[in-house]
TrEMBL record:
It is a single-pass type II membrane protein. One of its GO terms (cellular component) is plasma membrane. It is found in: Cell inner membrane; Cell membrane. The chain crosses the membrane at residues 16-34. Its main location: membrane. This is Biopolymer transport protein ExbD. InterPro entries: ExbD. It comes from uncultured Desulfobacteraceae bacterium.
Length: 149
């Protein structure tokens, strides 16, 4: 029996087309979802002269109060009845003992005082108030500038 030289070796190739397809689909998914993950609560912060930059630590716990008086914990809207429990869970999960409060300049003082009271009743003793330093644009909304302590 004579054998052909072509039959003596195996030709093995890796088909990369399915791999490239999967990578392109994952890229599109990440491109669509990434902006949603970094989105914050739009808050028009007041300006003060003694504002300092926020600490550069990774992901601080931020409580926001928007212009309608709704409270958010790290960008998630939280009903008033569940606020304290959600804050405690967030603080426990992140391991942070300091909370930063961002409140829109148009929010009545009573709504901000209620949120501050809930934060203190949750056992948080270190509370930073986030504000813009004087001289910045008055109508600018915040996603995380300076704070006043």
């Amino acid at each position: 029996m004579l054998s052909n030289d072509r039959d003596d070796f195996l030709l093995s190739e890796i088909n990369v087309t399915p791999f490239v397809d999967v990578m392109l689909v994952l890229l599109i998914i990440f491109m669509v979802t990434a902006p949603m993950m970094t989105q914050g609560v739009n808050v028009s912060l007041p300006e003060i002269s003694s504002a300092r930059p926020l600490p550069s630590e990774a992901k601080p716990v931020i409580v926001s109060v928007d212009s309608d008086g709704a409270a958010y914990i790290n960008g998630r809207k939280t009903p008033p009845a569940l606020f304290r429990r959600s804050l405690l869970r967030t603080v426990k999960d992140t391991g942070k003992r300091e909370v930063f409060l961002k409140a829109d300049r148009k929010v009545p003082y009573g709504a901000v005082a209620r949120v501050i009271s809930e934060i203190h009743e949750a056992g948080i003793v270190s509370l930073g108030i986030v504000a813009l330093p004087s001289g910045r644009d008055a109508g600018k909304t915040d996603k995380g500038p300076a704070r006043k302590k």
